[in-house]
Structure formats: structure tokens, C-alpha cells
Amino acid sequence: MAGGYPGPPVAAREGRGDSSRRRYAIGAAVGIALATVCFTWLLTGGTFQLLQRNLYANFYSVQARALLHGHWNMPAGTLTVEGIREGSRTYMYYGPVPALLRMPVLLFTHRFDGRLTVSSMLLGFVVAMVFLASLGWRIRALVTDTVVTTPEALVTGAVLLVAGTGSVLFFLGSDALIYHEAELWGAALALGAFDFTLGWLRVPSGRSLVAAGLFATLAILTRGSVGAGPVACLGLLGVAYGVTALGARRRSRVPVDTSVGPGPEPALRWLGLPEVRRPGRWALSLLAATAVPVALYVTINEIKFGTLVSLPLAKQVFTSVNRNRRITLADNGGSLFGLKFVPTAIVQYLRPDALRFSRLFPFVAFPPKATVLGGVHYDTLDFSSSVTSSMPVALPLGVAGMVGILRRRRPGGDGLARLRVPLAGAALGCVGVLVIAYVAERYLADLLPFLALAVLAGLSLARSRWAGWARWRRRLAAGVLVALALFGIWVNVGLALLYQRQLRPSVPIAMRQGFVAFQQRIDADLFGGERPEVTKVAALGRPGPPGSLAIVGDCVALYQSNGSRWAGVERSEAAGHFRLRAVFPSRGPGALWPVVANGTRGHGDYLAVDPLAPGRIRFAYLFEGFGQHWVYGPAISVVPGRPYLLDVVFDARLPAVDVHLDGASVLGTRLVRPTATFDVGTDPLGGPTLARFPGRLRRLLVTTPICADLLDRLERVRG
Fold it and tell me: Does domain 574-702 fall into CATH 2.60.40.10?
């Protein structure tokens, strides 16, 4: 043909595009499915039961019930130390979106109250993964329009599998409770907002802008820090187009002066923004999409706390019971936020040595707590790794992506400049975790939108230039990236298991026992001999290094340290552990039902069941005297007549009262005084409960086989 080959016909290009999209979608679906199975296994503790009960897992259900009744305040007993008191009312500081998502279920039944956290987090994980895949497709289109081959589809699946199992997303599945659920949904909804924003930047339309604004609103009303990222992005876009519109209007009234230099259009092009008709109208729409989430956020905060954005943490119950929190607030003007915390956070979340290796499975462990810089006082230094240590594959790809996004555009060059404003917005979404006096592994989730944009950009650049590299260079790059990805999977799976089954505050008794037993078997098979960090003591002393074990007496009890406190692995009845087979009645007297009692008349310790309705109960603890009140666990549903395994611990060494029903924690509080002789199922003290449990309680044998094996191994080596 004269003039050169014009390219394939439109129908051929569209068919090729559909085929590429289909291959990409299939590869992405396979990766998401595999990652979801792994995440479900972790989230459910290997049981795949999606309707579990956990402490701090019923906040959103109770918030949903409160909203259905037309108010924001919640029962103080539900929020416990997390509640913020305003006069006679108690409020939750978390955003309402996960509560709103529960409403379609809670409108029709009470059966799932407090049991939807696992299902909600699983849904949030899938949403996050789907938006990661969609962002990958959109960013790929900025770089190349080549056909997606089968090998590339396989790589796409592998990338998403790594994203789901080798990042902080996977770690969030280590505990099904409000803190991790808020992080997961906040990151997922922020990713959705950036995905739709990028869709608007590629092809501006009202539909994509409405979707971007909706998801930005949902994100900021779930977790304000990460949600601020997409909201800021929309605001920056609105300002940019507003300046463009004003500049165009000014130039239409003033004669052109070429000596002034470039107008706003070159600046708009440098920001990577598409030229649009009627930029003033788009500016107003973008600013409206920014104003709506901000207005809703400050309105809810004003209704609950009487402030626009700040939280009255001095009124939080935790502040009244925690001296370190009070010191932190006093040192920081009544707030937990400040620029002085930024150096510590940046060093901790970026340091390459935020990891240690262990002799015990999974052979990796958290590093020592963060080193505080600048002499500031921190509220909490929790277990935390870093981006570079736990997600190392993100480092080379992310750096390459940022270089590609920020470098000066060449005529006919790549279109990654479209990501400049979204990347800036995502960076603003990272600020919240840098300025808070709190370090924790879960906070890495706030960095996910920024990392996703940078890493996917780097991946698209590498994919577009792969064919032009020499074979040795391709092999080297592939080997390095695969090694870093596999290392990240190992680290995140290992840290998640370690946190879930050893380090978190509410590890179920059976889960901790099973994990310790498995670790000991692996260690004995691999290394044999004496286990380091296992000691036999007459009484508990200061906690040892994380994971160390202490045998008290001749296996009266076995304890494990998380570095700051001891937790029970096995306890005999002499150490206050009672295992009961419990059958709850369909209907019983309204007074509390005794489970375990000890002490003397007027000064007894009681564990009781508070019957709320047929099939609805909660556990409660009371120490009589000194004006003490009942401490209640969450309301739970039980099936009358069905046998349940009830583990009751009155541990004077910690001191703690812990109650687990079929392995799920249903009550945890502080034991007021040392234990004495116990009565099970009766109240011989004439206290505030019935004289006898109206259902059936059968006492089961309590053994300490893990402790016995450890003690035998210890004595054989030393003997």
C-alpha cells in the first residue's frame, strides 16, 4: 500500500484486545484464587470456618445495631478499653463502613452477631486483590498495547499470588479482629479509589469519577489515614484543572505575550493529566468528589466527639488504665500524632535488617522492638518488620517504577506520567502511620496503595523492555526477582504464623499448644539435643526472649514469653486450668449461672454465664469486694443441648482469667487475687449467682503432655 502499512483493521485490533484482556483476567483469577485459599487457611487458623467468634471482633456488629437504632453510641462493656467516653455515652473511633457492610445480614437475624469478622476480612482481601489486578491492567496499558501472551498471563498470576501471600496483606489474616479488619478494608477501598481514578485519567468520564469519589469516601470512612490518599489525589486533580480553567479564561481576555513563558497547559502535561474540554466543569466535579468524603468524615467526628478531625484520647478508657498512654499524651500536648515521630517510623519501616532468623519453625522472627530516635516517648512499640525486609521484591520494582513515573517525558515515550498525581496522593496516605506514636506490623498496610502504584509501574516497564534485554540479563533479573519474591512469601507466612499462634494477646489455648508442640517436634528432628531457651524454674521471673519457654515445677505449668509478658501453654488444675464439657439449657433462670467459684462469703471469685435470651449468653467475671463490678465478655450464640468444650483458666502467676469456648476466646480479664479451692457448677458461698448451673457441666481431665516431653528431653540431655 502507498504511504506504508496503516496497521490492522479496527475489528482485528479489538479482537486482539479482547483476547489479551481474557488471558490477563484468567491469569489474574488463578493467582487471586490461590492467594485467597492461603489467606483463608491463615485467617481461620486452618479450620476454614468462616463464622468464628473472637475478642474485639464484635465492635462492628454492635455499631451496626446502634446505627439501625439511629445513634452512634455503643455499650461501654462492648468497647471495653477502646471506648471513648463523652458524658454518659461511649463511642468507637473506627469508621462505620465495615459496620454498614454487615447491615444486610444483621437486619434479618441476631445469629451472626460478632461472627462476621472472618467473612468480612476474607471479602476485603478479595476486593484488594481484584483491584490490584485491575490496577495492573490499567498501568500496563499506559506502557504498551502488545498482546498478552500465555507466559505473561502466567506471570500475572504469579505476581498476584506473591502480592497476596508475600505482603502485609497476608499478615493481616493472622488475627480476625477490628484492628486488622480496619486496615484490610481501608487498603482495599483505597486501592479501588486509585483504580477508578486512573480509569478517569485514561478516559475521563462521569461514571469513573463517581466511582472514584465513592471508593475514596468509603476508604476514608473506614480508616482515615490511608483513605486520605485517594481523597487528596482527587483534590490535587481538581486544583490542577481549576488552575488550567482560570489560566485559559485569563488568556482569553489578555493578548498573548510569548515572553511570559509557558502557561498552565505545559504544567498540566508535566503532571501527566489529559487535556479535557471544559476543564472548569471537571475541576468542580473533582473538588466535589473531594469535598463529600471530607464533609462526611468531619460530620461524623463532630457528632461523636465534638471535634472536626482530632480524637479526644484523654477520654478513652485505655488512657485511664494505662500509665504509659498518659505519659505519651502529656509529652505530646494531648495527642498521639506529631512530626517528631517521623524519624523513628521511617527508619523502622524501611530498615533492611528488621528481621531475625530462628532455630525454631518457621525459622524467621520479628526483630527487637523499634529503636526510638530523638528521645521521644512512644505509646506502643509493637512487633514490626519493614517493607525492605518483609517485601523485598517491592524495592527494585518500586524504585524502577518511581523513576519511570517521575522522569522527564520524551516525545513518544511511555505514559507513566499519568501516575504522578495518584502517586503523590498515595504518598500523602502514608503520612498517618509515620506521625503516630505507635509502631506495628499491621500499619504497613497503609503503605500498600503507594507500593502498588510504584511496583506495578516498575513491573510494566520491565515487561515492555524484557524482549530487548540480552539473555544473560533476563536470566539474572528473573532469578533475582524470583528469589526476592520467594523470600517475601517465606517471611510473611512465617511472621503471620508466629504472630497468630505465639505473639498476639489472645492466642487460643489449643492453638498455642499445637504450635509449640509442632515446633518442638521439628526442632527435635532437625537438631536434637537440648533446646535453647527452655528452662525449669520454681517461679516465673522476668519474661525471656520471644518464644522462650519456662517449665514451672514438675510441669505444674508451661509458659511462653513474647518478650514482654508470659502466656500459658499448658497448665494443670494446680495452676488453675479447668476443662469442662458444658451443655447450656434452652431456657434458664434470669440470674447468672455459676461456672467456677472460689474464695469466702462476701469475697469470692466468680465465673458465671449471663443469660441474655434463649440461645444468647455472655460470660462474666466478678471479684467481690472493693467496689468491683462484673466484667462481661461479648454476647455469643449457643445451641441449647449441644455439648461445648469450655476451658477456664484462673492463673494467679500472670494473673489472668481466660475463658475459651470451643477454642474461641469469650472472656479475658485480670485475676484479682490468687486462687484457692474451686467449686465447679455450684455457688456454695451464697453469692450473686444461682446455687447451681441449670445446664450440665462435666469436669474433664487436664494433662500437660507438651511440658512432659520438654522436661524429659531437658533432663535426658543434662542427665
Answer: no
